[in-house]
Amino acid sequence: MKQFDILTIFPHILDSYINESILKRAVTKKLISIKTHDIREVTTNKHKTVDDTPYGGGPGMVLKVEPIAKSINKIKEKAKNKKTRIILTTPRGKLFNAKKAKQLTKYDQLIVICGRYEGVDERVAEYIADEEISIGDFILSGGELPAMVIIEAVARHIKGVLGKQESLEEVGGSHPVYTRPETVEVITKTASGTKRKKKWTVPKILTSGNHKEIKKWREEQGKKFDPPKKTL
Asked: What is the tally of structural domains in the chain?
């Protein structure tokens, strides 16, 4: 069983996603385990404060290093003999992709630290995290959504999680797909409000029954959609 641990100040923010669809089935089948950890629980101050103002001034608040370090140690105490990787989600991290997701499957346990507010004390990146990962060139309120993206992408590579292993993006999915009915009649409107009746049909090659040509067509179409491959 692969273990995923998420460090956050909002431990229930991802519950609905984890308890649905592919991930829920994978947890039920004991292929993976996903646990969220509230870093406030390890604090000893009265108000369970986990952030403070940044040294040198500036806007926003910064997550403190101590509660994160304590949470990591608490998790590691139970992770005996496990090959563990600690990830910090951050906009400046290396861009996450399918290759990285596959690489991360070699670890027994992934611990994901979710940033919040103005950021995380730099000592977390320097002394605690094994690597920093970003899911794109944009800013979010916190690292919970990136954590979920990483977990699902990695989980999909674990045998038995998907109904069919062919469902992985490397095999299919980047080419156009269609289903029944073969022809759909729709009414569209122009900018001026004029109604037009149109028929949207499935490419003939897909209904030909010629699987060799269908495979060739899909490969050709996939090249139009696949972005240039980058390595981390």
From this structure: 2
pTM of the model as a whole = 0.85
Q: Are 87 and 129 in contact (CB under 8 A)?
A: yes
CA distances (Å), origin 80, targets 74, 131, 209 = 12, 21, 54
In a domain, 110, yes or no: yes
Residue 124 lies in a domain: yes
Give the span between the Cα atoms of 95 and 132, in whole angstroms.
9
Residue 176 maps to a domain: no
Look up the domain containing 221 and give its range: 183-225
User: Is 138 labelled as part of a ligand binding site?
Assistant: yes
| Cα-based angle 219, 171, 133 (whole degrees, multiple of 5) | 115
Q: What is the pLDDT along the chain (232 residues), one digit of tens a residue?
A: 999 999 999 999 999 999 999 999 999 999 999 999 999 999 988 899 999 999 999 888 999 999 999 999 999 998 888 999 999 999 999 999 999 999 999 999 999 999 888 899 999 999 999 999 999 999 899 999 999 999 999 999 999 999 776 565 554 457 888 999 999 999 998 889 899 999 999 999 999 999 999 999 998 988 886 555 544 3
Q: What's the rounded Cα separation, in Å, for the pair 84 and 99?
A: 18
Whether 140 has a binding-site annotation, put simply, is yes
Tokens of 210: 């010629």
Q: Is 60 annotated as a binding residue?
A: no
Whether 149 and 220 map to the same domain: the answer is no
Check which CATH number belongs to the domain holding 128 and give it.
3.40.1280.10
Q: Residue 18 domain-assigned?
A: yes
Q: Is 115 annotated as a binding residue?
A: yes
